[in-house]
Amino acid sequence: METLSLARRLARYALSLRFEDLPAATVHEAKRRFIDSLGCALGALSSEPGRIARRLAATASARPGATVLGTGRASSPEWAAFSNGVHIRFLDFNDTYLSREPAHPSDNLAAVMAAGELVRAGGRELLAAAVLAY
Q1: N or C: where does the chain have the smaller number of CB atoms within 10 Å of the terminal CB?
Q2: What does each C-alpha distance from 8 to 1, 4, 18, 25 come to in angstroms?
Q3: pTM
Q4: How many angstroms separate the Cα of 90 from the Cα of each of 21, 23, 27, 74?
């Protein structure tokens, strides 16, 4: 019998998870996290850190790229994720749930969105990836 390391077990789980595996309540909450995070990002569009992040993202280009929120333009996936993450996090209102740990797991969503756009993931794939990131 093969003994798999924890890393391999987690990788297998991540590779095998499909949207159809997710309970309806989990899908609902993942959608709420996206809506919450995008609302926070919109609220930060006029902030100085947001403007700086968008200017930095504008210095990079890639094909295919990922959308930088508030610009209608694409940048490299890593710079788009950085800029979008700055916007999601700036107001510090992201994550509309109470937990014991002081973390904001929605910080992952900017990277999930950039990677999803890069591989042309659909909404269901994006939600499954977000659940994995959480």
Answers
A1: N
A2: 15, 6, 18, 28
A3: 0.87
A4: 33, 31, 25, 21
